[in-house]
Amino acid sequence: MAIPPSSALLLTRDQVLRALRQLDQNGLQMPLSTVYDLVYRGRRYAPRQVAQLAYRLATGQPEAKWPLRAGAPTNQALEALDFTIATKRPTLENSPLLDGDVAAQQQAEDLYTGSPRETAPPKKAPVKPVAAETNEATAPAEAHEPPATYERSAPMPYTPEMARAELFLADEELTAARAALARRRNLLLQGPPGTGKTYLARRLAWLVQGSTDTARIELVQFHPSYSYEDFVQGFRPDSQGGFRLRDGLLVEFCRRAAQEPEQPYFLLIDELNRGNVARIFGELLLLLEADKRGPTHAVRLPYAPAGSPPFFVPENVFVIGTMNLADRSLAPLDYALRRRFAFVRLRPEFGKPLRALLAAHGVPAALTQLLTTRLLDLNQAIADDPELGPDFCVGHSYFCQPPTNPTEALEWLRLILEQEIGPLLDDYWLDQPAKAAAQKKKLLAGL
């Protein structure tokens, strides 16, 4: 069955990297190109052969044919995934292969390969041979991409019993949150600071997929500088000092999800209301709806070039956002966005779950009683304040990492109240310093 050229756009950078690794393992058995090379970590590969192998790995079809022609179509597809395409040999300055920029192309090639040229350097930019100043036995320097700083840990099974043991939620609350996510596919966790919203978001994803595998989970945090161009699509600077059309996190994530329709994918948006949500989301306001998923409801993105396939959100994509309601600088969400989400409210929990956690870490019962009593009293004072209210209460996550040595528990609690809760109260009652001082004095009495 013929595969349409538009499906080539589903190729991802990870798949191309897999193809490069396989070529390295096979000793570069594929033929090299005659004009262009894909340059990666100082080595050269034939662009179309790399794309061909990556395409077969992506489709799972050993005989699948890469649908794009060699040259510019294939090169542009690989460059869109942030790979460098260099000219293999010098060409005439007026050749359309280089768009008249021979010197810039040669400079870029030397930068990525670190290999001296056999031909003389261009007259406009003479370069002194490196061998004249260094030992001839010294290998030329090579430019490398920075190595990965970490590796994903091996996924472990994650069960409802494990979730109950580490989440401060009643069984019915956890069941309701999972039902809302399954029904709407979009869930917003909202509540005061320190109530474990991001912590819960990740574990809801683990619960649905049944493991701690992070390969299908993407986390992004919104902020005032985040834009539609970052999230969906737009023109952004490239390494050559120009601008290039780039797909944002959402488009790349949805492409990955479309390749595994039987597997759930989770987009976690932390601090969702800290950005200009309506502007960041764009077409997503329509495509987020549970009944507007899939290619039937695809739309054309405003930056997309003519002839490019329309964009859609796959049915296996779930969005979980978090909102801090206590930040006075944030505007409330508009109603168009609210209609796309189900909402779950989280509250500070200073009852049995926190007591059990502290007891398991050896925190003395008397100290646990003092902690919970004083925080409950503080939250009542905050909730009763007409200028604050329940959204400004202090959450339990401040106290979820007790010391390993029980003898340090008293100092641990004092420092949290003094260094973390105290400054928060100063900010809450900025215009009433006496009230803030009185509440801090109550918290720290006897400590």
Automatic annotation (TrEMBL):
It comes from the Bacteria. InterPro entries: AAA+_ATPase (IPR003593), ATPase_dyneun-rel_AAA (IPR011704), Methyl-DNA_Rec/Restrict_Enz (IPR052934), P-loop_NTPase (IPR027417). Pfam families: AAA_5. Residues 127-151 have a biased composition (Low complexity). One of its GO terms (molecular function) is ATP binding. Residues 183-347 form the AAA+ ATPase domain. Residues 112-154 are annotated as: Disordered. Gene3D superfamilies: P-loop containing nucleotide triphosphate hydrolases. This is AAA family ATPase. It comes from Hymenobacter lapidiphilus.
